[in-house]
Amino acid sequence: MTRWQGRPSGLPTSAGRPGQWRVQIEFQYCFVAPNCQPSPMVVETRWRDGAQPRLLALSKSKSSPYVNGRFNGQPGALPWEISKLAVVVGKRVMVASTPDHRNRLPGLLKRAEAAAKVADTYVVDGTPPDMYRVFYAGPKEWKRWYGGDQPEWGAGAAINTGGGHYEVILAPETLDYYGPALDELLRHELAHAASLPDKSYWDDSAWWLIEGLAEHAGADGQPVSRYDGLAPTRRLVTGDWDGKLDGLLPDDDTPDRKVTGSYGIAYLAFRHLVDRFGEEQAFAFFKAVVYDLRRPEQTTEEIFGESWSSLRKECVAYIRKAVR
Fold first, then answer.
1. pLDDT 10s digits, 30-67
2. What beta strand segments (E) does 31-69 contain?
3. Could you give the CA distance from residue 63 to residue 83 in angstroms, rounded to a whole number?
C-alpha cells in the first residue's frame, strides 16, 4: 500500500454509551503505484472521550450506493480487509489470494500480464489503469469478498472501487479452466477495468455494449467461427430471442446456457460495429452511451452516419448469419 490517508466524514454521533461516540472515516488508499488516483473507502468507527480520544472499534466497509455523499458507492468488504493475502506484483498487474493459493500466483500473474497488454488497447477515455488488481477467491472468499453478491453463473467480475479503479475477482474454479478459457476471462475482465468510467451511472440497456466490448477483448482477434460461446448463442438466437439488444442483461439465476448466449449476442453485435466501422468509431459509440449516458438513437447518425433503427437491424442480421 503506497497511500493511506483518513479524514472524518460527517459529524460525530452518540454511540449510545456514556462518553462514547461514533463517526464515519473516509480513507483514501493506493496500491503499488505511488502517484495513483486513490480509491475511497468509508467505515464506521467508535471512540471514547478523553484528552486524547481513544479508538474502540473500527468496522469493515459495507456495501453502499454512496461514499461521502457521492453516488459512486462501495461494494462491501474488500479482500484485504477481511483476509490475509499473499501478493505478487508485475509490471502492469497485482495478483493476490489467500496464502493457501500462494503457489499458483506466479502462473496467474504471467497470464494476467499478457491479458493486460490487450486490455490496455481498450481504453475508451483517458489512460490505462496505473495497475490492474486481480484477486483470486477460494470458495469461502467468493461468498465474502465485495459483499459476496455474485450471480450464480459468475466466473469473475470487475468491481468498481472508486478512484477510477476496478478490481477483478476470479471465482474458485477459474484456475482449473481447460485450455485458453482463463486467458479469455482475464482479457474480458481487465478490459472492463480499462474501458469503464469511474462512475457507474449507465442504464441496464447498455449491458450488451459493455459486455460486447469485453467479449471482443476476450476473443482477441480470433475468427467468429472459433468463438467459444457460439453454440449457446445459436440456441438462444434460434430460440426465444426477440432480436432486441437492450434487454439482454441476465438475472442472477438465469441458466448458464442462456447467460452464455446473451454474452455471445453482445459480442457479435459489437464485433459487427468494429468490423464495419473500426475500433475508433466503435469506442466513440461506447463512450457516448456508457460515459455520456446518451441513447443509441441519439448518437449513431453522428458517429456512424446511420440511424439506430437501421443499424440495430443490421447487427441482428449479422448475428443471425454468424450462428447459422
1. 888 878 888 888 888 899 988 888 999 888 777 665 55
2. 39-48, 54-58
3. 17
